[in-house]
Design a protein that fits this description.
Blueprint: H1 2-14, H2 24-39, H3 50-56, E1 64-69, H4 76-79, E2 87-92, H5 100-112, E3 117-123, H6 127-133, H7 141-153, H8 164-180, H9 183-190, E4 195-201, E5 208-209
Parallel strand pairs: 1-2, 1-3, 3-4
Antiparallel strand pairs: 4-5
Helix pairs in contact: 6-7
Length: 210
């Protein structure tokens, strides 16, 4: 019985979430560790119970924000093995921040929620970038506007679908540059209060690289 209790105690401790990151570097380390757990099928699914729901109901204090794609193959909380209240997630087709609405959400995460880390997460086989650089039939309406916006950011790759992966990575970099160009964001970075990172999610392996 004594050995059983020891094993159970160790197992429970192992499955407990780490302390909330207090610095940008700790926040990045936590996302990296979470993705490693996810890829190796060792996710602990932290902060996923009703106690956490009740704890966060009056107030949210996420340690990171992620601008990700709306693609159904990119489940942000799952691939970083995070739970309720851990990540402020902003998702748009093509993870594009070139609009006041999206940038307003980014500002909210940085200015009002005080996140330590902002990740712009691109991913393999992105449909938004694929449509933007393809020579296919032109889309109209809101889809056409979306693709035109992405196309402006990857103009060197238009018509060259064989360079899709490079276009996706470049597009993500452009979004990062767009965010850090805002003076209030640059100031927080300079003061060590915020880290902004570009990342890439491999839809074949589940791995995130920075």
């Amino acid at each position: 019985m004594g050995l059983f209790l020891v094993v159970m105690t160790l197992t429970m401790c192992k499955n407990q979430p780490a302390a909330t990151p207090s610095t940008p570097e700790e926040a990045l380390a936590e996302l990296i560790a979470g993705n490693e757990r996810y890829v190796n099928e060792k996710s602990i699914h932290p902060h996923g119970n009703m106690d956490r729901v009740g704890e966060t109901a009056p107030h949210q204090a996420p340690f990171a924000a992620v601008v990700g794609c709306s693609d159904s193959r990119v489940p942000v909380e799952l691939l970083f093995d995070q739970g309720v209240g851990d990540i402020f997630v902003i998702r748009t087709a093509g993870n594009n921040v070139n609009s006041e609405m999206v940038m307003g959400s980014v500002d909210y995460a940085i200015e009002h929620l005080g996140v330590k880390l902002l990740v712009v997460l691109g991913h393999g086989s992105c449909g938004g970038v694929t449509g933007a650089i393809s020579d296919g039939e032109e889309e109209h309406g809101n889809i056409g506007h979306l693709l035109a916006t992405i196309r402006n950011d990857v103009s060197d790759y238009v018509g060259n679908i064989d360079s899709l992966d490079a276009a996706i990575r470049h597009h993500t970099q452009v979004q990062v540059e767009r965010v850090v160009a805002y003076p209030h964001v640059a100031e927080k970075i300079a003061n060590g209060e915020l880290l902004v990172k570009k990342a890439y999610y491999d839809v074949n392996t589940g791995k995130v690289t920075y």
